[in-house]
Amino acid sequence: MSAPAETANSLLEVNSVAKSYGALHILTEINFAVPAGEAVGIVGPNGAGKSTLLSVINGTERATAGSVIFDRRDVTKLGPEVRAHAGMGRTFQIPRPFTHLTVFENALSGASYGAGLHGKAADEQALYALELSGMMDLANTPAGRLPLLARKRLELARALATRPRLLLLDEIAGGLTEAECDSLVETISGLHASGITIIWIEHVVKALLAVVDRLVCLASGTLIADGKPDLVMSSTEVRRVYLGSGI
Amino acid sequence: MPKLIAGSVRVDRYQRRALVTGVVAAAAFVALAAAPYVLDPAVTSSWIKLFYLITLATMWNLLAGYAGMVSVGQQAYIGLGAYGLFVFNDMGFDPYSSALIASVAVGVIALPLSFIAFRLRGGYFAIGTWVIAEAVRQIVIRFDNLGAGRGRSISNYTADPVFRNMFTYWLALGILALALVVTFYLLRSRMGIALQSIRDNEVAARALGINVSRTKRIVFVIAAMGAALAGSVICIQAIGVASPNQIFSVSYSAFMIFMVLIGGIGTIEGPILGAVIYFVMDLYFSQLGLWYLVVLGLLAILVTLFLPKGIWGAIHERFNISLFPVGHRIVPVADKFLPQSSAQPTVKEKRPNGRFRR
Ligand SMILES: Nc1ncnc2c1ncn2[C@@H]1O[C@H](COP(=O)(O)OP(=O)(O)OP(=O)(O)O)[C@@H](O)[C@H]1O
Ligand SMILES: [Mg+2]
């Protein structure tokens, strides 16, 4: 079911990517392409390698083999800061806030460097990101004092502040109430509608299905399904890996 | 409280407080600069040590507290500052200009050394900087004209001891002011956000587009130049160096770490406070000999146990004051089209689980 990597119009191409830590193979032969403007969901059991794949895409981790092409540029060997400048914004599953900086200053970091803005333009971009992620009320709070859910929201705010063309989200819906989750879905749908390309890892499948055009399933470091969300969710391979994991 | 939207708020940089700091600091600078005319020069020249200690602590804090580079090899640049002074002094420059030229030269040397040091991380980085310092010392003592392993004295210096003391005092004061101004300016500038982000989380900083190694390199060079300036002050005060082992001694690093940790790492105020504490203790207790070191050690242990953020860190946490404001604050802009609310002038922390809102 896995589709061959398309070359035309893809914003992102992941070609034969592998990642291992010594003898430990986390990802093997990952191939997929994301056309500009598409929203792709990634599902898969714990430890499948989803977050690792995101890291290989944004450069936090270097691929052991294969290539990552972003906007027709080979970024495989480039650092995450270069990929951020090129338009990749990511959130971390385990939040990594700048604890001594305020929420606003956290966003300002992304606006100043990821988006490459200066002075007032950077301030405005950071404020816009806070507004979009609903964090304006916490703007002056030191990030170290935020509880977990707000830290996750800060991850989103910071990634948005970099003005990404490709937004990489890693489990941002877990632990939210129904209303909060609906609100988040509305926000991400809005971003999708505005033309931002999105790759979203999420265990809360309901939230994911409300937004994405396409679903990918990762298990034991390989893609086992890729296609229309309902088809992927009903495919036998996906059902098999999810059996017993409660979905 | 009215909902804040991007258009109805503005970013406040604590300009007024920064201005007050600037004015007070400028007044203190003028008073200190005039002090040798009023006070006994013997008193003022004893402050030279305080000035270079604050300079060293401030520079080490910039390096470790902000850029996350825990170096135990800054004595490389202290020593190079002193020996660089000999080189330019021998060429005919007066000792004070030689100090400044030497610091630039040390900056030039630090740049390639950073490429070696940056290959190492964490504890290896610390050890690596120490090894570099040892290597630098080994190279310096190969030169006979620099006194080889015996140390040497400055060839051309101000003969009159009163003037010499005053010139040295002003040099040390000027260097201290420069170190503080550069640090404060750097942290308030755009790069300040990058430095503080790196300090808090390097992986996230890179993912947000911050060029971590370039930023660190800039700081590494600045810190080396600052250490070199302090080194040349030490050298001028003693009209030379007693031995390369002394000026390249790792104990400088130990004292820098002590001052910064006691005062409060990652703040501008902390190292100043730590340096003052160390200076006072050194002044009154150093005749206790071995016991003095025990007292220093005990103080370090007590502070790390009970005030892990240092003395200034604890003060800042308790009273939320900062003498050198580098932060940003969002304040609402009064909007005449909305009914005036009684909301507080600043955005307050709200319940932690605020909802996602468009
Ligand atoms: N630095 C590392 N060194 C060794 N193993 C690692 C490292 N990072 C991750 N792993 C392993 O790689 C595997 C995949 O991890 P990853 O975080 O990508 O999974 P995931 O699909 O995101 O899981 P989850 O749904 O729990 O977030 C796990 O078994 C993990 O233990
Ligand atoms: Mg994960």
From TrEMBL, chain A:
The keyword Repeat does not apply. Coiled coil: none annotated. InterPro entries: AAA+_ATPase, ABC_transporter-like_ATP-bd, BCAA_Transport_ATP-bd_LivF, P-loop_NTPase. GO terms for molecular function: ATP binding; ATP hydrolysis activity; branched-chain amino acid transmembrane transporter activity. The keyword rRNA-binding does not apply. GO terms for biological process: L-amino acid transport. It holds the Pfam family ABC_tran. Residues 12-245 form the ABC transporter domain. It comes from the Bacteria. Keywords: Amino-acid transport, ATP-binding, Nucleotide-binding, Transport. Belongs to the ABC transporter superfamily. This is ABC transporter ATP-binding protein. It comes from Cryobacterium glaciale. The lineage of its organism: Bacteria, Bacillati, Actinomycetota, Actinomycetes, Micrococcales.
TrEMBL record, chain B:
InterPro entries: ABC_transp_permease, LivM-like. Keywords: Cell membrane, Membrane, Transmembrane, Transmembrane helix. GO terms for molecular function: branched-chain amino acid transmembrane transporter activity. The keyword Transmembrane helix applies. It is found in: Cell membrane. Pfam families: BPD_transp_2 (PF02653). It comes from the Bacteria. One of its GO terms (cellular component) is plasma membrane. The chain crosses the membrane at residues 18-38, 76-93, 99-118, 167-187, 218-242, 254-281, 288-307. It is a multi-pass membrane protein. PANTHER family: ABC TRANSPORTER ATP-BINDING PROTEIN (PTHR30482:SF17), HIGH-AFFINITY BRANCHED-CHAIN AMINO ACID TRANSPORT SYSTEM PERMEASE (PTHR30482). This is Branched-chain amino acid ABC transporter permease.
